[in-house]
# Entry
Amino acid sequence: MRVVVTGVAGFIGSHLSERLLAAGHEVVGIDCFADYYERARKEQNLDKSRSHDRFHFEAADLVDADLAPLLDGADVVYHLAGQPGVRPSWGNQFDRYVRDNVIATQRLLEALKDAPIKRFVFAGSSSVYGDAEKFPTKETALPRPLSPYGVTKLAAEHLTNLYTRNFGIPAVSVRYFTVYGPRQRPDMAFSRFMQAMTAGDDIEVFGDGEQTREFTYVSDAVDGTIKASTADVVGQIFNLGGGSRVTVNQVLATLEEISGLSIRRQNLPAAPGDPRHTGASINLARERLGWEPRVSLAEGLAKQWEWFRATEPDR
Ligand code: NAD
Ligand code: UGA
# Structure
């Protein structure tokens, strides 16, 4: 099959691309190297995919590129390109969230209106729930984002849904819950913690550290994304969460055990936009996608630590 992965140079997109190449597909990867973090990291993320001759890379921006030739012949489109990050989405930065999450998604869907694709998978976010009323949170909960980022991810998810209803684009959305593992973005918690630990700096904890997250290992997120492209589930939305909820303080204790280093922490005020808790009901994904997260936090964190140490000289 010929598949398109947008955001292919990013954290999750690069892992997805490798998995699709290993499964024998032809992958067209699209990315514009948005400057949210260093291009060099994204180039490294692409190294393994680029070593396959079934991989074609297009350095293109979804908002202003001529998309038709890039999408020509595609069977499946995985749309992961976007502007991530909850906490920086305030103020002037909001423009880029609207641009890369809402406008980019609309342009892509427009370009696919008449294309004979079999599936479109949208990378949604747990941030659409905001401070949810119930845990674990089901997909049917009323979305009430708490951050500008969450609003743009919800808007893009709605756009995806309405192009299905109006034009029959066979789309599915997956809502990732805080993904981690090798190549995690440098702005995310585990990356920042590991960076501070190795530099001998204090770890900055936003709030009291008792907030919980449903952390999801990247290979599990990739599995669920691929399953969403084949199961008979057009028009549906699925939570993809790691299977348990832990506090940031528990993460730090696990990280001390794994690294053998002792952590110094500094508690800062809680960040605006950060939900106090996230927690996924994953029953729907279990039942309809036949998906199950497999990697525990201790195992996944150890793998990220190992990767972090091994790639330190490149940083
Ligand atoms: P990332 O920043 O590493 O990857 C996103 C990629 O998209 C980047 O390489 C960027 O250059 C590219 N991009 C951005 N705007 C683009 C545009 N207009 N045209 C072409 N390329 C563009 O982020 P990630 O953590 O891998 O996240 C991937 C997707 O998953 C995002 O849509 C994000 O909102 C979503 N998501 C991520 C998480 C997580 O925990 N990492 C959780 C929920 C949802
Ligand atoms: C992550 C991604 O960054 C978003 O792009 C994504 O959409 C979201 O998951 C999601 O699930 O939808 P977040 O949960 O904030 O967002 O992920 P982390 O940056 O890993 O933060 C996890 C927790 O650690 C948060 O409670 C945050 O406040 C805390 N944290 C983070 C700190 O205490 N200190 C830090 O330096 C960084």
User: Anything to note?
Assistant: The pocket of uridine-5'-diphosphate-glucuronic acid (ligand 2) is lined by residues 84-86, 125-127, 176-178, 188-189, 192, 204-206, 211, 213, 248, 271, 274 (CB under 6 Å). The CA atoms of residues 137 and 280 lie 5 Å apart. The chain has a mean pLDDT of 98.
